[in-house]
Amino acid sequence: MSSELDQSAIDEVAARIDGELVGLRRALHRCPELAGGERRTAALVAERLRAAGLAVTTGVGGHGVVAVLSGAGPGPTVAYRADMDAVDEDEQYAGEFASQVPGAAHLCGHDLHTAIGVGIAEVLAQLRERLNGKVVLLFQPAEETLAGARAMLEDGVLERTAPQEIYALHCGPLPVGTLAVMPGTGLPGQDRFRIELSGSAAGDAGKRLTDLIDGFSTIRHPQSPGEFQQLLEDLRTPDGPLERFVFARSQLTWTDERAEVRAWLRAWPDSRYAEIRDELRSAVDALPDARITFQGPPFPAMVCSPELSEAAAAHLRGVLGAHAVMVQHAAFPFNGEDFALFLQRLPGAMFILGVADPEAGLNGIPHSPDFAADETAIGVGVRSMAGFLSSRLAALA
Fold it and tell me: How many other C-beta atoms lie within 10 A of the C-beta of residue 94?
C-alpha cells in the first residue's frame, strides 16, 4: 500500500467536484462574514466535511473548524490551513454573485481558500484507501485581524492533532494556472503604534512625526500596470530591490492643543522593526509632552521553509508543468499573514496561487477594491495541494 496517490486519480476526482466547489465559493462570496463572525461559513464547511466522512471539530479558537482525514493505514500527519473571513469593505466588482452584505466582501480571496480546502478534503476522502497517515485540515477564522491563528494555537489545535508539517495557499495576481513558491521568504510582519502630543505646538510636531514615519518607506504602491509588472519582476529577482524594505503609513488628527499620530508599517527583515522603534523613541523623547505607545511586539513575518518550498516546486512542476511554477525570492510588501504563527511552530510553507486573467478583467490583487479571481484556479489549487499533501505523507513515511 502506497501513501502517495497517483495524480491522474486525483485529477479525475477533482474534475467531478469542480462545479460544486465553484458553487460553494459563490455562496460564500455572496454572504461574507467578518473576522470573528464566521458562523455560517464554518457551518457550511463542517457540513461538507462530515458528509465526506472526516472527523470534524467546530468552535476551535472561535469559529475554527478542524477536520481529520485518516487513511487506510498508520503513518505520519500533515496539515493544511485555509482562512475563512472577509474584509470590512464594500465590493466594487459587479458580478452575479457579488457580496450582499454591506461593509463586508471577500476581497482577499478567503472564499476561494475555503472552497479549495473543502475540495482537498473531499478528493482525499474518496481516495483514502490508498493513503497511509492523516491529513488535518484547519479552517481558520479571523485572519484579517491577525487573531485567528493565535486563537487556534492557544486552543491547543496542534497538540491535539500533532501534524509534522503544515501548508497553505494564498491567491495572488499571477496568471491562472500558475503557482509560486517562496523558499526562505514569504510575507512581512507588521508594527503598530500611537503617538500622543499636547501643547500649543502639538499639531506642528505631529506633522513632523508623520513626515518622519512616511519617510521610512522605501517603496510605494504601484501606480500603473507597468509599475505593478515591475514589482512582480522584483519579487522574482534574487538579491533584488526588495531584499530589504519598509512600507509605512501614518494618520494625524489634532485640535488646538492635542494631536495624535496613528501609524503602522511593514518591514523586511524583522530586525528592521527594532531599528525603527529606536529612531521613533528618540524623535518622540526630543519633544515636550509627547508619548509613544506600541501595540505590543511587532507581528512576525511569515517565513517559508526553503527545503519544503523547493520540494513543493519539484512536485508541482510535475503536476502543472515546468513553466507553471515560479520562485519568489522576496516578500510581497503590502500584505501580511498570521499563518506566520503556524510556521513558527511547525516546518511548512505557503504557496501563491495564480487567480488573475487581465484580459477578462480579473486582476487577482488581494485587498484591491476591485479584486476578482478566475474560478478555474479552484480546481488548480485542489489538484495541486491534494497531490502535494499525499507526496509529503509518502516522504515522511
Answer: 8
Question: What are phi and psi for residue 200, nearest 5 degrees?
Answer: -65, -25
Q: Which of 272, 394, 255, 266 is nearest to 337 (CA)?
A: 266
Q: Are 188 and 267 in contact (CB under 8 A)?
A: yes
pTM value surpassing 0.85: yes
Q: Do 125 and 14 share a structural domain?
A: yes
Residue 1 has pLDDT above 50, yes or no: no
d(CA 342, CA 166): 8
Q: Name the residue range of residue 276's domain.
A: 191-224+243-294
User: What is the rounded CA–CA span in Å between residue 170 and residue 354?
Assistant: 9
8 A C-beta contact, residue 153 and residue 341: yes
CB 339 within 8 A of CB 320: no
Q: What is the CATH number of the domain that holds 386?
A: 3.40.630.10
Helix residue ranges, H only, the chain: 7-30, 39-51, 110-126, 148-154, 157-161, 202-215, 225-235, 271-285, 306-320, 339-345, 376-396
Name residue 279's amino acid: E
State the cell numbers at 359: 484580459
- For 83, the 3-state DSSP assignment is strand
pLDDT tens-digit readout, 291-331: 999 999 999 999 999 999 999 999 999 999 999 999 999 99
Q: Do 39 and 90 belong to one domain?
A: yes
The answer to whether 265 and 191 have CB atoms below 8 angstroms apart is: yes
Backbone φ and ψ of 82, nearest 5°: -130, 135
| Non-local CB neighbours of 56 within 8 Å, separated by 6+ positions | 46, 49, 50, 65, 66, 67
**311 φ/ψ angles, rounded to the nearest 5 degrees:** -60, -40
Q: Tell me the pLDDT tens digit for each residue of 193-229.
A: 999 999 999 999 999 999 999 999 999 999 998 999 9
The distance of Cα 356 from the centroid of its chain, to the nearest Å, equals 16
Are 128 and 177 found together in one domain?
Answer: yes
Q: What is the CATH number of the domain that holds 263?
A: 3.30.70.360
Assess whether 103 and 156 both reside in one domain. yes
Judged by DSSP in three states, 3 sits in: coil
End-to-end distance of the chain based on CA atoms, in angstroms? 12
For the segment 132-136, the average pLDDT, to the nearest whole number, is 97
